[in-house]
TrEMBL record:
The lineage of its organism: Eukaryota, Viridiplantae, Streptophyta, Embryophyta, Tracheophyta. This is Uncharacterized protein. Residues 1-20 are annotated as: Disordered. It comes from the Eukaryota.
Length: 20
């Protein structure tokens, strides 16, 4: 699994499987 891309808002979209 790859890291979510950072959006223009600054915070990356967090998928259900993504944990910071």
């Amino acid at each position: 699994m790859t890291q979510p891309r950072a959006t223009r808002g600054g915070s990356p979209p967090a998928p259900s499987w993504w944990r910071p």
